[in-house]
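Handout for the seminar on molecular recognition.
Each group receives one record of this type.
Step one: identify the two inputs.
Step two: read the structure output and locate the region that could contact zinc ion.
Step three: write two sentences on what you found, then compare them with the reference statements printed after the record.
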Amino acid sequence: MDLPTISAWARRKGIHLVGTGDFTHPAHFKAIEETLAPLGNGLFVLKTEADDATAPRFMLTTEISNIYAEDVPLSISPKGRKTRKIHSLIFAPSIEAVRKINTELARLGNVNSDGRPIFGFSAKELLKIALSASPDCMLIPAHAWTPWFSIFGSKSGFNTIEECFGDMTRHIHAIETGLSSDPQMNRRVSMLDNITLISNSDAHSPAKLGREATIFEAEMDYLAITSAIEQQGPGRIVSTLEFFPEEGKYHSDGHRDCGVRLTPKKTITARGICPKCERQVTVGVLSRVEELADRSEEEATAAALPSKKLVPLQEIIAVTMGRGVGTKGVQKEYMRITDIADEFNILLDKTEDELRDITSSEIASAILCVRAGDLEINPGFDGQFGTIGISEAAAQRLLV
Ligand SMILES: [Zn+2]
Ligand SMILES: [Zn+2]
């Protein structure tokens, strides 16, 4: 995940603006300073591609983990204390702002061992550090619903944004829906009505860039983009590209080791207990949204921005070929097609005829099935990704 590789993969995916990630890490920050050129608008580009108007733009971003215990009312925990584990994204407008954040964080903990460092102070303190580095910094709770490390997580999260950020809540303008939830699910929770929903890759490897994305109608400019997120500028978010939430690894409830997957209803019937090992199951995103929801699915769909659900092209090719994503044949076909057109263009825009021109008719059909939502999905649970299959009947229908 070095910067030239991120840039090359962003192009292959069809991403125009990508996060640098990991700006708190000294080695990565040094690489940011050495390999990126500022564009004068709070965004950056590879120095080697500075003259190329089509080169992907970079925003200075990082993810941070706050793990801390705090006093809570006895109604929340009989011990009167609860451990919180929250991941947050920070966006920064300049190298100077990043340097200030990094200096403060290096004073408070270890920034050397991990690209996503862990601190023992609260997410609210982190927000204060970011805003004192620059009022134009933005903090966004990451993958907001995942059980273990998120603001609303069933294991160590909160029930409201206010509980987490207190008198700083007005500075929280957005949350990241994460791979296991989508905008329709989030809009069932009316307390999030003024909160923007964004979607990001959460990539840990270059090929996983663009698993999700946010589509802006805004100037390619740091302040234009952050004010679109704040819903305050002329720019706006038009829609998001989403992972099928069922495919996310914390969508349903259950125990991975016991091979037990439960729907929210079954979890309630079982009083949260695993029928196999009789311990508490890991309550996933679907149940957790259900718990805080006060709107019907129909109302929520009406309230949500339009979004499109994607299956990564490598997975589509793998399913069609009946081989693993990492196998040579799948990788070769993926690289061959994405040399011709970028992945988003292939997944979203190419006509049936155009798809058949560049790839096999089986893969072309499978892409059309994904667009139509004609899939068979085994939901993910307790850290295990869901699996996706093109429904046999649909695939046959499309093969003319
Ligand atoms: Zn995270
Ligand atoms: Zn179990």
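Reference statements: The chain has two domains: 3-246, 312-400. The CA atoms of residues 186 and 375 lie 22 Å apart.
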